[in-house]
Amino acid sequence: MSANSLPEGAAVWHSLEVDKALDLLDSNADSGLTPQETQQRLQKYGPNELEETAGRSAWEILLDQFKNIMLLMLIGVALISGFLDLMALRSGSLKPGEVPFKDTIAILAIVILNGILGYVQESRAEKALAALKKMTSPLVRVIRDTRLVEIAAKELVPGDVMLLEAGMQIAADGRLIEQSNLQVRESALTGEAEAVNKQASLKLPEETSLGDRLNVVYQGTEVVQGRAKVLVTNTGMTTELGKIATMLQAVESEPTPLQQRMTQLGNVLVTGSLILVAIVVVGGVIRDGGFKNIQELLEVSLSMAVAVVPEGLPAVITVTLALGTQRMVRQNALIRKLPAVETLGSVTTICSDKTGTLTQNKMVVQSISTNNKTFRVTGEGYAPTGDFQLNGQKISLEESPEISALSVACAICNDSVLQKEQGEWAILGDPTEGALLTLAGKAGIEKDQWNSKLPRVAEFPFSSERKRMSAIAQVERVATGEAFSRGVDPAIAGFLQSEPYLMFTKGSPELILARCTQIHLGNDTGTVTEAQRQKILAENDLMASKGLRVLGFAYKPLAEIPPESSSETSEQGLVWLGLVGMLDAPRPEVRAAVQECREAGIRPVMITGDHQLTARAIATDLGIAQEGDRVLTGQELQRMTDQELEQNVDLVSIYARVSPEHKLRIVQALQRRGRFVAMTGDGVNDAPALKQADIGIAMGITGTDVSKEASDMVLLDDNFATIVSATKEGRVVYTNIRRFIKYILGSNIGEVLTIAAAPLIGLGGVPLTPLQILWMNLVTDGLPALALAVEPPEPDVMQRPPFSPRESIFARGLGSYMIRIGIIFAIISIALMWWAYQHSHAPGYQGDRDTWKTMVFTSLCIAQMGHAIAIRSNNRLTIEMNPFSNIFVLAAVIVTTILQLMLVYVPPLRDFFGTHYLNMQELGVCIGFSALMFVWIEAEKIFLRIMGKKAV
Length: 952
Fold this sequence. Notes:
The protein is α+β, with helices and mostly antiparallel strands.
């Protein structure tokens, strides 16, 4: 076989005749390939395996954590601090009882902790490809050199002749050579749960979508029924499954909005810190006229550098996101990647699959047509409770006996079982047949009872060629001594004269009707007229246009059981019963969820492998699209360039008959338009799009392992409404993250300015040591920040558009708030620092002359407690709020204040942290100055209220 003997791409095999495909692959349907040919092709095409590209190692992920600019600055601070301690140790200038290198050890411990936190979040390796590999069959039966052999699936090559039977997992893509009643479940690739009837004899157009290629089979799908002989056309990475693996590995993970904002925050803080350090050092050198106090200036610089970095922020954010995941799990949303919690709050577009997410994944009969009347059927799911309505009015079965007659056909011509399990009605068997049993139950026809009245004695099974099935039942009569027809149930009394058997037939309405010569009218029959035929066909078209799957039903009395091979002749001269139209009904809670999406500025989009009529009907019913909105099909999308798709993507809310590549292209087009996309999916075909989307959402019940591993979030109940609840939680989390960033960074700016001011106004020494600053940033900032993270949601959280995922962390006034509060914080602290310095250096002062530093330290910490209480609301005064609505803030303030006082009044802690004892007057002054911070923030709220403005 020459290198150029294969057709270009797998897309053309379905458009070739079987003989042409065999010629192109130089193979024989009866003898297969020779050992020499298989060896040559194995060397040429490689093994039938999915190949994996190398990713980052665990060490690379860990090292990447320490490339964060804030951590790099802290590492630099730790090294300089260690160097200064080493110099002091060598010169013997350490103070009595002072522990060397404690600042260095504390700073490095924080760096390592933050690095580990980042590593744990990021190191969850993508296992989607590993899950994809599990879908390949280990062994396969092939014909080689005229012999039937079983080989390892990885040894398959293009041109092999593979044999399939029920229960087998297909090991490679292939063109059907021959088949017998073959049904293949392709839900992993197409997303549609219903098994597909395959036909080898078909020759299809090249543009036929993946779900409609009825003459080919695909790797990773499962044979449900029948058997087949298949010509292997594609192996390994050239299969449809391989293409998905290629797309999956080509998708690069982008940083989440929160990660981008934290990077921006780090850059701003470090840059600002370095500028301030330069100003302090240069200003100090100029003031001193040289470098005689350079060590003191370096110590000030180190303290400023530590003060500017919010060391506790990564831990607070991680805990906040973790708490968000716990709340989401209670709402049936399992978060696999922690940053996804906040990312959900930025979603502008939700692309949802139809089956099982927007719908119940339960076929429900919506409409039946008998005796020239069309009835609407009510009810939910498989529960056999509901009404029959004519022109909006409930009707009784006595008024319309033809409903009971049709329902008997639904129950007898049926292989499924309807049963109640743990209070829920469930179906054992085909969902379509389950819907028919439910319909019969609503008409009072129970299959178990009717199996005794009409026991099945023979059948003509369904096949893809016949597109129908028939069940032959024996009529069990009651010995009443009355007329013969009265010895049977009234529901079928009109079916019979004296025949002992009844045949019920169901299938394609057009084909069933073509075999009918009579029509059932009430309790009688009559010859079917051409006008009646046209009316039935028009009703069939009307049902189909509403997205319903339509089946036709008929019956025929029989004098004897027909032979097995007589289906063609026996299924003639039928009596028409009616049409049954069914739909995978929408979930009742989804309509409200779609409405909530629209109110929140989020656009829902349906992307499905189903037919466009069904997709339009469901989308219109749910409010995703309006009547007359455009439906874009996979074929139309295939012909579009990326630019054309980008121009249309904001105008289309329904995509039907799409393939894996289409889903990926839709997501990418939306992202190029600046949309922030959540994408749902359950099949293998969805994995690349799930990974590409800003939020990939897999199904927990019906989802494949591949889709779950590629996702950020798993819906435990497969429900669209859960996505909306999770989005709300994401918005709450982001709001709370902004709240505690305001709280933490406002105080950090105040700390930096206070430290910088000390040498510039001529005070000796550094007011705060790096260890004390770490205490403030981790404990007195951290605990209240965690409490602020659980603030309840604002009432209007889902009545506003999503904030732009690309907005700066400082947007909407947060940056100006931090600077303004930081400056006020600094003014209060510097005023206290000046007073305390004069107080501790006054003649006759009995305490340590460095007591002023402890007063500054204590005042900064207690001021933060007032800040935490005031910042709970942007607009309401503290006295207007219930102090117990967030009990955690109150607890954090009390605990943190006690811990701070312990650092001052417990001797071992006082020695370790380098603080000094404060008398009651000094402590009272600290509390008085600290209270000014709370007073200022409350005064701001009053001012803004008077001015009619809303705070950030």
